[in-house]
Amino acid sequence: MTAWGALDRGGPLAGVKVLDFSRILSGPYATLTLADMGADVIKVEPLGTGDATRDFPPFKGPLSHYFIALNRGKRSIALDLKDPRGLGVARALAAQADIVIENFRPGVMDRLGLGYDQLSQDNPGLIYCGISGFGADSPLTDRPAFDIVAQALSGAMSLNRAPGQPPNKLGLPLGDMAGSIFAVHGVLAALHQRGQTGKGQKVDVAMLDSLMAMLTYHAQIYFVSGKPPAPVGTKHPSIVPYGAFPTSDGHVIVACLTETFWVSFTRCLGLPELAEDPRFARYDERLANRDALEAIIDDRMRQEPTAYWLDRLDANDVPNAPILDVDEALEQPHVAARGLVQTVTHPTAGEMRVVRGPLRFDGVAPDVGRAPPLAGEDTLDVLAEVLGLDPAACEDLIASGAASAYGRATAVAEEN
User: Fold this and answer.
1) I need a labelling partner for 412 at 20 to 30 A (CA). Which of 92, 168, 263, 358 fits?
2) Which Pfam family, just one, is annotated for this protein (predicted)?
3) Active-site residue numbers?
């Protein structure tokens, strides 16, 4: 059998083979994370269209910003999974894979012949992860779900607002990303267990479950008090002062999570007497008198500009931050020092900057690897190198319409 690891670039998951049937965000972010840790990920895309996010503007050359963000470091093979020959290629790849990840509604992959029960017959060590909106046994299982649906049903959206304002979607697609993150947790745990038992297993991850797990102390406020936590905007439901405070020309984040920081903040404000005021001396007293305390802080901080307060807060060792736009965040010194942005080169789209993964191993961040592929860009290589098919068999699969090398052909044509 031909070795899979054509993209071995080191990392703790070097040699781990991942077959990725997922699309949009919740699955691709999980497989992106695995690729960042060194896994060799082959992405299976439908003929012609590829992943739906390939059509989302704006574009860098032929590649969508959305697809770039979630699919660097992977290879792409385009297959018709409803064609028996295309299905056969997918099953042959799954027979060699360590991990399969998909994010269709429960039952879809079974109907295609690519469910866990079917694939594990040929590969008993397979770790199969299905990410869906509601999981395999929910009363909501058959409903479609996207990030905003999970946010609404989890309670997270109700918290993401200022008092008296309508609920708002989180700017980050945390419903999708929570499912992705817990999927990675699950498959790595299953991979560890397989190392002990030799057996694979199915991992079921629901986006809604994942966001519910992230409620943490918000859920516990309800369980302890019997009342849901009220929306507080940028502020904290049980810690004061904490959040965004107005300055003469903007806002500053202040986070006094401990008594030490609170006392330091009173000195920063030039109001050390607040630390001795019986209304504000302890956590519970500050919370009970939140409105009065925040009015005092607001009045004082509005007297000076943001830069003044950032300097003062730093000098007094109080946790603080300016509120940056995305461009400012990406260009800040921290990002450069940590190497969080890396440039990759695509043969058609040219150079592009991407955000790399946050993990470091022995002080080294894994390389992001290759640029994101065109749809089907690696079909011929995967068929030949991974499955060991000869050139005639590869061309026969493409001629039959069971597979496509359109992306590869497009790249070659544009290069010439």
Assistant:
1) 92
2) CoA_transf_3
3) 176
